[in-house]
Specification:
Blueprint (H helix, E strand, L loop, with lengths): L5 E8 L7 H8 L6 E5 L18 H7 L8 E7 L9 E2 L8 E5 L4 H6 L4 H21 L22 H10 L4 H9 L4 H14 L4 H10 L1 H23 L6 H29 L4
Parallel strand pairs: 1-2, 1-3, 3-5
Antiparallel strand pairs: 4-5
Length: 278
């Protein structure tokens, strides 16, 4: 059964600096995914902060956001200023369904320490908010997604800056949280799309793709067998002083070419799976 397309509206609340919301859209709209992000008109005049002239209250910001017309639409307000309680984001407030506010205040230094961008961090907040709301729509039980462990998971309850840096660096939905979501029948299509977005954020470099290959038990076994089997034979020939025949050089050449093809093939597959090239 196909899931509905999830509409994601991005709304700038005032001046948001050099953050590129078009890049946020590009990260979210992966090929074959069910997320469809787009930018709506920004709110240009927020007035002065209404909390001690320093921060904006949740009530003020949520009231500024556009009305949500259906259950498959989510609205995210992006603001450069601090918000109530100095939160990085607020995903629920009173009767404002499917609305969230994301603050960029004091975020830039942390995302740079994690090797990410502000756009990456916005996307991670959006993914966590959507999954949280999907979870809550499927069960009346209390939300058990957020946890106090530092796992680098989307649902880490980041209590300090170091935890946030670690979470931003890891970029993952771990097996425990995935299990919680599947247990209440959150659509596998949504999780599939989330995985593609997370992989896109990781920017799968050749090193990242190779690392994943080595972490996979099956592929690492095949690679180990290839290198081990042929490698042992070549080392044995070398130690016995027999490594000078045309056959030995052919074997070495085949080993190197096979190894290279395997790594390049894995990298191409990783790029394809990430949906980067649409």
């Amino acid at each position: 059964m196909n899931s509905k397309i999830i509409q994601i509206q991005l709304c700038a609340l005032g001046y948001i600096g050099d953050v590129n919301l078009k890049k946020v859209v590009q990260l979210l709209n992966v090929k074959g995914g069910i997320l469809q992000a787009y930018i709506v008109d920004s709110i240009t005049n927020l007035g002065n902060p209404d909390m001690y002239s320093l921060a904006y209250s949740w009530e003020t910001l949520f009231n500024y956001l556009p009305q949500v017309l259906n259950n498959s639409t989510y609205v995210f307000g992006i603001i450069n200023s601090p918000i109530e309680n100095n939160y990085f984001s607020k995903t629920t407030y009173k009767n404002h369904q499917n609305k969230s506010v994301i603050s960029l205040h004091q975020r830039k230094e942390l995302v740079e320490l994690a090797g990410r961008t502000l756009e990456d961090s916005i996307v991670l907040d959006i993914l966590a908010a959507i999954l949280e709301k999907q979870y809550e729509s499927k069960t009346s039980e209390s939300n058990t997604l957020f946890h106090g462990d530092t796992r680098g998971d989307l649902f880490d309850f980041v209590a300090n800056k170091d935890d946030l840096v670690y979470q931003l660096h890891e970029v993952k939905l771990d097996d425990i949280s995935r299990g919680e979501l599947l247990k209440v029948n959150v659509s596998p299509q949504i999780l599939d799309t989330i995985d593609k977005v997370l992989l896109r954020i990781k920017k799968p470099t050749f090193l990242f793709a190779t690392s994943n290959l080595l972490e996979n038990p099956i592929s690492s076994f095949l690679l180990g067998s290839l290198v081990g089997g042929i490698g042992v034979e070549l080392i044995s020939s070398f130690l016995q002083g027999d490594f000078d025949t045309e056959t030995d050089y052919w074997i070495l050449g085949i080993l190197l070419i096979s190894f290279f093809v395997l790594l390049i093939g894995n990298y191409i597959y990783t790029l394809y799976k990430s949906g980067i090239y649409q």
